[in-house]
Amino acid sequence: MQMQDKIAFVTGAGRGIGRAVCRELLQRGAAGVVIADLDGATAQATAAELGGLGLQCDVSDEAAVQAAVAAAIAHYGRVDVLLSNAGFGATELDLDDALAEPNDLWARMWQVHVMAHVYASRAVLPGMLERGAGYLVNVASAAGLLCQVGDAAYSATKHAAVGLAESLAITYGERGIRVSVVCPQYIATAITGLDEKLPADAPAGLLSVEQAATAIVDGLERELFLILTHPEVLTYAQRKTADYDRWIGGMRRLRAGLRNGEGFLKVRKC
Question: Which residue, 254, 270, 246, is CA-closest to 147?
Fold first, then answer.
């Protein structure tokens, strides 16, 4: 789907990948973007910077999502593209206890990484089905295909987000609804403990939000179901499914490397 003249509703758009995608969409001719974010002031500031409609929205609250989508439709008349992007991760990885994360964190991750996609899709889908066209985009993570060592809640909910996108594509694809799931690997954002600018000594494989946004919108215009910012993730996923036991062994070695201080992710000290 070409983005020219399209109206996009983007969650988690006040900063990071969401803001960069909004900028990329506008550069490719989108007629309007809705910048929805939990931080209303940040949403408004980004809207003022890029041009668009800034809205405060808690994506874990279905009533709030319905209200935000209604405001977007009142402003622009429709939503052509939903990019459900809001997410968060643990501040530190716990390599010694996969069950240490408290229940309230598991519940919050489920709400933000899974139910938020459900709520947003429910809000925009009736109008899309009536028009016989639309695009639902769930931003998950490479952890939804592989695993984020040290953050079980993040990995489990991102796997669920991928499964939800599959169900949406299977159910609505023959009714004019395009569906994609985006599975980024390491991007310079708050989730990886970095700001939005690549450090001078950036490790190999770490992308800027601008690089990620370009890859994402390229994938949307090609109407790919699985959009990867890091193409090598597909190879990793294929190796995983070809031999799960070997893959688990490799991930154990990765865990050991993280414990020894390899990589740039923050690890909880025990």
Answer: 254
Enumerate the active-site residues. 154
Residue 146 tokens, joined: 């592989």
Question: What pLDDT does 158 receive?
Answer: 98
Whole-number percent of the chain with pLDDT over 90 = 86
Q: What is the residue-wise DSSP string for 117-181? A: HHHHHHHHHHHHHHHT-EEEEEE--GGGTS--TT-HHHHHHHHHHHHHHHHHHHHHGGGTEEEEE
Q: Which residue stretches of the chain are H helix?
A: 16-27, 40-50, 62-76, 103-110, 116-131, 152-172, 209-222, 232-242, 244-259
User: How far is the C-alpha of 9 from the C-alpha of 34, rounded, in Å?
Assistant: 5
The pTM (predicted TM-score) of the whole model is 0.93
- The CATH number corresponding to 7-259 among 1.25.10.10, 3.40.50.720, 3.40.50.1970, 2.60.40.10 equals 3.40.50.720
